[in-house]
Amino acid sequence: MSEPQIISNPAEVQKIARQWKKEGLSIGLVPTMGYLHDGHRSLIHKAAEQNDRVVVSIFVNPIQFGPNEDLDSYPRDLEADTAVCASEGVDIIFHPEPKDMYGEHFLTHVAVDDITTVLCGKTRPIHFRGVTTVVNKLMNISKADRAYFGQKDAQQLVVVKRMVKDLNMDIEIVGCPIVREEDGLAKSSRNKYLSAEERKAAPVLNRALTKAHDLMDAGERNADKIRQTITEELQKEPLADIEYVSVVDAELLKDVEGEVTGPVLVAIAVRIGTTRLIDNFSFGE
Ligand code: PAF
Fold first, then answer.
1. Which protein residue has the closest C-alpha to ligand 1 atom 2?
2. Average pLDDT for residues 148-165, to the nearest whole number?
3. Could you give the CA distance from residue 167 to residue 232 in angstroms, rounded to a whole number?
4. Ligand 1 centre and the CA of 197: distance in Å?
5. pLDDT the model gives residue 1
6. pLDDT for res 285
7. Would you say 179 and 173 are in contact if contact means Cβ atoms under 8 Å apart?
């Protein structure tokens, strides 16, 4: 088990990546905000399987957080993260400071229209612009051939794929399945915020989605009925405060009215106490 190099300077990572490319080596990038869990581990594992070299970025990206969000309290544990990366054979942990990424007079953003203003974009208006900007920078810095994203952040995955397609970026985006706790709660660094009582309530998200999935497996295609089933299940949990329950087409994320006829994303956002949780499934892909 070799220790990954921890590097904060973007130019230094870029220099190593340039050398790797010269040697004909492929590079996998796993962008993260740290506090790594088994969901991240599965992305890193896949990246190590598919590439000669792996770069994991650990950067709590300030420009994707709104003014009243959890930038300052976002959990951090570089030591534990380094151990995860070492056990998966990561070559570089790119761990910049905000000043390394956004120097004086930073003026350039990458923004994807339309699909960033629905679902999570409704309550997090600047979020996806921050994500696409930093992901672009991370791709340019690491010179990656492939980048790995979890299906849990389904909208993020759709937005990043759209950006790569629209801008002819020479990188493959690999989506990886959601990893869950034993009781069905999707793994997330933010689960740490839940109190014991809230943690008990949180599997309601997966329960509600499973019910909808079963209904669809049994042939139900009416989008209202699917939304209603999920909403009713969530409402059984007194600590759950629904932000959205959506059935949207898988590519343009437009609400499905009437019958589901093509691939869809069934996505929800729910507050349990003050913690905002998201979960989803894809159907018909
Ligand atoms: O999914 C995340 O953790 C972040 O949005 C990402 C992709 C690392 C960009 O900061």
1. 32
2. 98
3. 41
4. 28
5. 61
6. 84
7. no
147 in ligand 1 pocket by Cβ < 6 Å? no
What does the DSSP assignment read for 182-224? Answer: TTSPBP-GGGGG--HHHHHHTTHHHHHHHHHHHHHHTT--BHH
As to burial, measured by CB atoms within 10 angstroms (0-12 exposed, 13-18 middle, 19+ buried), residue 186 is buried
With the most atoms of ligand 1 within 8 angstroms of its CB, the residue from 71, 134, 155 to mutate is 134
Write phi, then psi, for 225 (nearest 5 degrees). -65, -40
Give the pTM.
0.98
Closest CA to 147 of 128, 133, 164: 164
CA distances from residue 236 to 136, 201, 240, 270 in whole angstroms, order as listed: 41, 10, 8, 13
**Ligand 1 mutation pick, 29, 30, 33, 128, max ligand atoms within 8 A of CB:** 33
Residue 33 CA, closest ligand 1 atom number: 3
Other Cβ atoms within 10 Å of 197 Cβ, number? 11
pLDDT above 70: percentage of residues in the chain: 100
State the alpha helices, DSSP H only, in 71-153: 78-87, 98-101, 120-123, 127-142
| Position in ligand 1 atom list of the atom nearest CA 64 | 10
Burial of 77 (0-12, 13-18, 19+ CB in 10 A): middle
Centre of ligand 1 from the C-alpha of residue 68, in Å: 18
Averaged confidence pLDDT in the chain: 98
pLDDT digit string, tens, across residues 101-134: 999 999 999 999 999 999 999 999 999 999 999 9
What letter does residue 4 receive in the DSSP assignment?
A: P
- Evaluated on CA atoms 8, 12, 18, 22, the torsion sign reads negative
* Dist CA 75 CA 59 (whole Å): 11
Ligand 1 centroid – CA 204 distance (Å): 25
Between CA 142 and CA 29 the distance in angstroms is: 7
